[in-house]
Amino acid sequence: VDLSHLSPEERWRVEHARMHAKHRGHEAMHAEMVLILIATLVVAQLLLVQWKQRHPRSYNMVTLFQMWVVPLYFTIKLYWWRFLVIWVLFSAVTAFVTFRATRKPLGQTTPRLVYKWFLLIYKISYATGIVGYMAVMFTLFGLNLLFRIKPEDAMDFGISLLFYGLYYGVLERDFAEMCADYMASTVGFYSASGMPTKHLSDSVCAVCGQQIFVDVNEEGIIENTYRLSCNHVFHEFCIRGWCIVGKKQTCPYCKEKVDLKRMFSNPY
């Protein structure tokens, strides 16, 4: 069709009609693609829920591995060297701690080493997340101008700290749970069936296997001693690590349910 004799407005209308004719039916195709995507997401979510319920151990291991390794690809691709350095340091120490936690027989100092390391990471992640959140809120309210900081710089700083706090906080939580499972089965006082594999003396902590020298009613110099509702006694630091860092809500010896709010006003 010769468009030279048409006005610009008429030429635009003809071109617009041609474009619609060329892409006729694409709207239906796009709607089908959206429906397929939604259905896929729903089915994938259902499969993930079933996987987590039926095989929680493999689910936790796979998700932990992905969360640990996937950021490494983007870090190298985007040249985020600061994150890479922190990731390498965290991975090296965590790998050493995890190695110690999976050894048999379990060293007497290993449980405390594991709990101290993951407790330290928790505190650092928590503090980093709080500082990042405050930086973001200060930027939203314009308080960054009081320190002559550009809004984009302040927001980048806050979001980066929030990411570091959330990422390493979730990562250490999952690693701590995995280590707690390995140590629980290795120590020998705990079993999945709920029946202890050997008798626990009143003067021995079922988490670390070491002697308890401070009475429940006494004030300890380094740490106190706690007695659960099932009357089993543990080192303060061991039972805090077992219940909080390792997300274990049961007694390490008899698997009785533990009320953390009643036991500790401040878990950490």
UniProtKB/TrEMBL annotation:
GO cellular component: endoplasmic reticulum membrane; Golgi membrane
Compartments (UniProt record): Membrane
Record field: transmembrane: 33-51, 58-74, 80-99, 120-142, 154-171
Domain RING-type as annotated: residue spans: 205-255
GO molecular function: ubiquitin protein ligase activity; zinc ion binding
Membrane topology listed for this record: Multi-pass membrane protein
Swiss-Prot/TrEMBL GO biological process terms: ERAD pathway
InterPro entries listed in its UniProt record: RNF121/RNF175 (IPR040176), Znf_RING (IPR001841), Znf_RING/FYVE/PHD (IPR013083)
Keywords: Membrane, Metal-binding, Transmembrane, Transmembrane helix, Zinc, Zinc-finger
Protein name: RING finger protein 121
Organism: Phaethon lepturus (White-tailed tropicbird)
